[in-house]
Amino acid sequence: MVDSTQGIELLLDAGLERRVTGSAEVEVRAEHGVWSRWAVNVLGHSPSPAEVERALDLARKRALDGTLFVVDRAGANLRSTACEDPRVSYAALTDRLVWLAGHEYRAPDDGSKPVAKRNRVSWVQFGILRLFALTDRKVPLAQSEIARRLGVSHVAVGKQLPALDAVVERTNAGWAAFDRALCWDRFLATYPGPHGLATYWTARMEPDDQLRRLSQACSLDPTDLPIISGDAAADQYAPWRRPTRLTAYVTQQPALERLGFASVRAGDATVEVRIPKDPTIRATASPQRTAAELRYADPLITAWDVARTRGGDVPDAVEQIRTRALKGDWWN
Q1: How many C-beta atoms lie closer than 10 Å to residue 107's C-beta?
Q2: DSSP reduced 3-state for 50
Q3: Interior CA angle at 109 toward 106 and 114, to 5°?
Q4: Mean pLDDT, the chain, integer
Q5: Is 253 exposed, middle or buried (0-12, 13-18, 19+ CB in 10 A)?
Q6: Has residue 138 got a pLDDT over 60?
Q7: pLDDT (tens digit, 9 = 90+) per residue, 190-202?
Q8: Residues 231-280 pLDDT 10s
């Protein structure tokens, strides 16, 4: 019963510096000052010898230093293997213990509990829900057009449409939603989040300045610009409350320390930077029309992120986004 973000935060709590470099890869610097690169494997159980060997094989193929298992508790096999092989490391959430490259690091108990184990997620299915929630029902979409807009294969879309027969229907002109609001509500009620690894930051500056500096830190490559979500994106769709937290979806973690940001735990953050596993987030984001223009997550991803923030006005802010988004066509 584990969560990848808790595992990465445990590294920080144990006094280890870390840089997230992929949705399942992290760099860690221990007390000796040398950075090492690890594949992150999240399991709901302590791995068997065969699972350890498979993970090591994948790490070797990716030219990494080893594999870091994020588990609830480390079993006897994992502990003994890690003692013998410095390529095997683990972060045990309940024990608040990190074993990294042959060394033990303990974190103080914070009273947190691991979240429930996650099942396999169909990102395409959730992308289809967002697509139809944000598309005018008068414009049915061909299966090939759905695939194009989500950046996935025609076959992948075909496999998921039957699972959505309660909210979408096939017409002579293509696929359309029975009711866009049903698609919106189903997405928000069932979306498990984008997964992937995240880092959390804060800075003593106004939200607009944090957004500006975050954008500066990210690549200038138009295909690699951050996708902005949370309060910063909500302000574009339905200004309702003062922004307090922004989320950025990236393909590689930017160096924010040089720009006045400090790494913190998730609950204290004003900026969340995540490398998502959900590949449809970038596909459904707003287009970039000028070199200086930011890209924003679509209204549904934005609403989901806003719903995770604190404040008594959050439900009203989410409802404002919903109301305005369902009135128009996000794609036009």
Answers
A1: 19
A2: helix
A3: 100
A4: 86
A5: buried
A6: yes
A7: 998 998 888 899 9
A8: 999 998 988 888 888 999 998 888 888 888 988 888 889 999 999 999 99
Amino acid at 124: V
Burial of 269 (0-12, 13-18, 19+ CB in 10 A): buried
Model confidence pLDDT, tens digit, residues 71-113: 988 998 899 999 999 999 999 998 899 999 888 898 887 555 5
Q: Residue 222: which pLDDT band, with cuts at 50, 70 and 90?
A: low
By CB atoms closer than 10 A (0-12, 13-18, 19+), residue 307 is middle
**164 with 125: CB under 8 angstroms?**
yes
Residue with tokens 């404040």: 311
> b/e for 204-229, b at 16 or more Cβ within 10 A?
eeebeebbebbbebbeeeeeebbbbb
Query: Phi and psi of 263, rounded to 5°?
Result: -75, 130
Give the C-alpha separation, 250 to 252, whole Å. 5
Q: What is the mean pLDDT of residues 276-293?
A: 83
Q: How far is C-alpha 301 from the geometric centre of its chain's CA atoms?
A: 11
How far apart CA 196 and CA 137 sit, in angstroms, is 32
Q: Which domains does the chain have, with CATH numbers?
A: 4-106 (3.40.1350), 123-190 (1.10.10.10), 197-327 (no CATH)
DSSP strand pairing (295-296 vs 262-263) = unpaired
Give the closest residue to 247 by CA, choosing from 223, 276, 221: 276
